[in-house]
Amino acid sequence: MAIPYPRFVGSEQPAMEAARMGTPPSAQSTPPVNLTQEELKKIAAYKAVEYVKSGMIIGLGTGSTAKHAVDRIGELLRLGELRDIVGIPTSKKTHEQAVSLGIPLSDLDSHPVLHLAIDGADEVDPRLNLVKGRGGSLLREKMIEGACEKFIVIIDDSKLVKFLGGSGLAVPVEIVPFCWKNTALRLREMFRDSGCVAKLRTCGEEAEPFVTDNGNYIIDLYFEKDIGDLQAASDAILRIPCVAEHGMFLDMATTVIVAGKKGVEVIHKK
Ligand SMILES: O=C(CO)[C@H](O)[C@H](O)COP(=O)(O)O
């Protein structure tokens, strides 16, 4: 059950108060029904950072929600409320952000096991399976978040879906650029029964291929129907030689923090 924002229970209070940037408790007596999506993302992010303790090795996620968490970690380090944190960034963009905040950084080669990672997601299904990578960082995210003892996903409630692919948005697949049309065709044919459309992700006015931090392309898969057996789909995609990784994160999240108009909910994997 979601904890409603105006009546905080125990540890729900600090995240909300901090996220509302010092709004005095008295000003919170009316339900904050008009929270924007950005505010909800920030509330989820601040709540997740309560799980960060001094001395931890932390996976730093990518995207607009994760950005709030990285900002908050930087702020707590600056205030001296956290110490001896080492961040492992999941993208070049997050690396830049963390450097600008003075967060000490390292990598998976030096730290093969992390205590915790905090990241956003594009979709979360009832079993806490995820789609990630619409920001394009799925490969590094999967490497780093797969090496964590605890993986906290932070979302606003628009990301909750009945089944992956169910929001009508894409399931991304990172591929080696060589003969990408052939890989796109193989992906489309593989999911023909689910009404799959496979599109190269592009960017800019010239619609140039979007290039990931690893120098790869992304094929976005759009499904008309439920994909069905996700593990079988994952295995089949990964068997295509040019595929580096896909954006289905199955059985990886240990906790999902959902901020919605009615409150913030912390869901732990059973
Ligand atoms: O997977 C990701 C980037 O590769 C992001 O975490 C995901 O796209 C969610 O982004 P946002 O928080 O901006 O909605």
UniProtKB/TrEMBL annotation:
It catalyses: aldehydo-D-ribose 5-phosphate = D-ribulose 5-phosphate. One of its GO terms (molecular function) is ribose-5-phosphate isomerase activity. Keywords: Isomerase. It is an enzyme of class 5 (isomerase). Pfam families: Rib_5-P_isom_A. SUPFAM superfamilies: D-ribose-5-phosphate isomerase (RpiA), lid domain, NagB/RpiA/CoA transferase-like. The keyword Translocase does not apply. It comes from the Eukaryota. Belongs to the ribose 5-phosphate isomerase family. This is ribose-5-phosphate isomerase. It comes from Trapa natans (Water chestnut).
